[in-house]
Structures are given as structure tokens and as C-alpha cells.
Amino acid sequence: MTDDLTRRRYLVGIAATGTGLGLAGCSSGGGGESTDPATDSPTETSSSGGGGDGDWVQTDTVEMNDELAFAPKQIEVEAGTTVTWENVGTIGHSVTAYEDNIPEDATYFASGGFDSEDAAVDAYPDEGNITEGETYEHTFETTGEYEYYCIPHEMNGMVGTVRVI
């Protein structure tokens, strides 16, 4: 059964990667910094497109875009804060916590309202897909770091972290 889950995750990733790479290649040719002109200062942290390790932005809003990125990639919030992920692009995304990379006593989170990472992966894209203009919210009560990813674009580096203080 584990082999089926791994194979399924791999196949979902490959299918999405083929489409995502083509779109990412086309969209990044003109300059990555001008793709988020309407956003606030957090775009400065995420404009490197996958870098930013060590750069923590204090915000409660994360954008998901057609460059297959969470922007900003790393955010810091106080306990009790509700974080909103908004799809500002045309490609569907998910917000899926790495079950083993969240604080021990924390509530699991994934777009679609799943109780486990396996359930989220198994149901995608029928459930948990956040399409253009849609949002997903989660309230963080437990302090610590929460790592998460987009199911179809994980292989493209679409991962993020929420630090709760």
C-alpha cells in the first residue's frame, strides 16, 4: 500500500511537472519581479523565486502564483493568527502540510480539510485544489515551525514554512 501511495504521488508530480515546467518557462522569461505589482512588501522576500532561506516575513497572507511559488516562502505569525493562502494565478494549487514536519501537538492542515497528508494526496485534484481567485485559511494555535507544499508542484520547489511564535 505504501508503494501505491508513493507511485501515485510520483505520477501526480510528473503530470503536473510537465505542464508546470512549460508554463514556468514561458512566464519567467520577462522578469520575475514584475509579476506581483499589486502586492505589499513581502514580495521583496519572495522575488528570488525559491531562495530566501533565513528571510522571515511577518504577514498573514501568502500568495500562490503561476511561477509555482508561495510568496512569501517563509512567514512568521503569532499564535492564534489565521493565515490566508490566495491563488493569484491561473494554475490550481494546494496547501498541504508535511505531516512529519509540524509541531507534535499541532492540528494537521491541508486545503480540502483533510486530517492527514496521505488523505490529501489521495484526494487531489478532486478535492483540495485551490483554483484561480480562491483562498484557503488555517489558524495556527501551537508555536513552532510548519512546513507545507503544493501537491502538484512540490517537485518544482513549491514549498513554504510558517513559523508560529
From TrEMBL:
<feature type="domain" description="Blue (type 1) copper">
    <location>
        <begin position="62"/>
        <end position="164"/>
    </location>
</feature>
<keyword id="KW-0249">Electron transport</keyword>
<keyword id="KW-0472">Membrane</keyword>
<feature type="region of interest" description="Disordered">
    <location>
        <begin position="22"/>
        <end position="58"/>
    </location>
</feature>
<dbReference type="InterPro" id="IPR028871">
    <property type="entry name" value="BlueCu_1_BS"/>
</dbReference>
<keyword id="KW-0479">Metal-binding</keyword>
<dbReference type="GO" id="GO:0016020">
    <property type="term" value="C:membrane"/>
</dbReference>
<dbReference type="InterPro" id="IPR006311">
    <property type="entry name" value="TAT_signal"/>
</dbReference>
<keyword id="KW-0186">Copper</keyword>
<dbReference type="GO" id="GO:0005507">
    <property type="term" value="F:copper ion binding"/>
</dbReference>
<protein>
    <submittedName>
        <fullName>Plastocyanin</fullName>
    </submittedName>
</protein>
<keyword id="KW-0813">Transport</keyword>
<dbReference type="GO" id="GO:0009055">
    <property type="term" value="F:electron transfer activity"/>
</dbReference>
<feature type="compositionally biased region" description="Gly residues">
    <location>
        <begin position="22"/>
        <end position="33"/>
    </location>
</feature>
<dbReference type="InterPro" id="IPR000923">
    <property type="entry name" value="BlueCu_1"/>
</dbReference>
<dbReference type="InterPro" id="IPR008972">
    <property type="entry name" value="Cupredoxin"/>
</dbReference>
<dbReference type="Pfam" id="PF00127">
    <property type="entry name" value="Copper-bind"/>
</dbReference>
